[in-house]
Write a structure and sequence with these properties.
Length: 279
């Protein structure tokens, strides 16, 4: 049984992470942030995803304080490309904590892999965990070969890999590899930023279950063991995206699996790795 405020995944470091979180990319004014966070918290979301890049950490921290106690929420933040390297990772995270108005984040991620400072950045992440400034540490947009490279020098491995995945970019081999490494996969743009929502097959399944295409996709992720962080600024959709207590059959799961077109809405991780920045 799925309950947005209670269902969690156990991470390899022993911490629990909510299965469902709320994405805040492009929620960039305080009124909208206060409104969406209040609706999200009321609807049962307990995990909130931000990044240094989104420039909304302070707004998010302030909005959370209005509705919840720190210990009742799980905050994810991400170190941006230009803040990578040992000292910048440490200093920029200190600044992020100040912005969020908290002593720790529950999960700190490297936002994108970049070739320069690759190991140094991770070693700073390990230090931040040691200091209690991040309860858990992970990565985002890492490919299999980048995780294999990291493993050659890491003292501990990431516990989460946040990657783009939706029915048009199913990423099953990557998810299988994460699992083999005891890494929980978290889906960013789980709704493909809208591009998959008019798929006729999803509409058919939605009708059958009395649900919406967005709910079918989010349920598919939960059934394949993937954490989800959909974003919406629309109160009805924020709530709708938490109502996932139903079951897709094995056939329905397979029908979504084969919608894959390897179609990205975001950057290609290998290129960001080479360029050192998003393009
Ligand atoms: N790690 C990374 O590199 C990375 C990259 C991108 C995103 N992210 C994170 O992932 C989060 C989610 O990704 P995203 O915001 O790019 O895309 P998304 O969650 O896949 O899609 C958001 C879009 O879908 C619409 N939507 C939401 N729920 C809906 C529903 N039930 N029915 C119909 N439409 C719906 C939203 O519209 P309205 O808002 O108008 O309702 C919005 O236009 C981000 O906010 C961010 O926190 C991480």
């Amino acid at each position: 049984m799925f309950q947005p405020d209670k269902s969690t995944y156990k991470l390899a470091d022993g911490h629990e992470m909510p299965q469902l979180g709320f994405g805040t990319y492009k929620i960039d004014n305080p009124d909208l942030m206060n409104q969406t966070i209040a609706t999200a918290y009321d609807s049962g979301y307990r995990m909130f995803d931000t990044a240094q890049l989104y420039r909304n950490e302070k707004m998010l921290g302030d909005a959370i304080k209005q509705v919840a106690r720190r210990e009742d929420v799980f905050i994810i933040d991400k170190v941006t490309e230009m803040n990578q390297g040992h000292d910048l990772t440490i200093n920029s995270t200190d600044f992020s904590l100040q912005q969020l108005g908290t002593d720790y984040v529950d999960l700190l991620l490297i936002h994108w892999p970049v070739a320069d400072h690759f190991f140094e950045t991770w070693s700073a992440m390990e230090e931040l965990k040691e200091q209690g400034k991040a309860k858990s540490i992970g990565v985002s947009n890492f490919t299999r070969s980048q995780l294999e490279l990291l493993k050659t020098q890491a003292d501990e491995m990431p516990v989460v890999n946040q990657i783009e995945t939706h029915p048009y970019l199913t990423q099953q081999p990557m998810i299988d590899f994460d699992k083999k490494m005891s890494i929980v996969t978290q889906a960013w743009s789980p709704l493909g930023r809208g591009i998959v929502l008019d798929n006729p097959m999803l509409a058919k399944m939605a009708k059958h279950h009395g649900k919406t295409p967005a709910q079918i996709i989010l349920r598919w992720d939960l059934q394949r063991g993937v954490s989800i962080i959909p974003k919406s600024k629309t109160p009805e959709r924020i709530k709708e995206n938490t109502e996932l207590d139903f079951e897709l059959s094995d056939d329905e799961m397979s029908m979504i699996d084969v919608m894959n077109k390897n179609q990205r809405t975001g950057n290609e991780p290998e290129l960001v790795y080479e360029l050192g920045k998003q393009y």
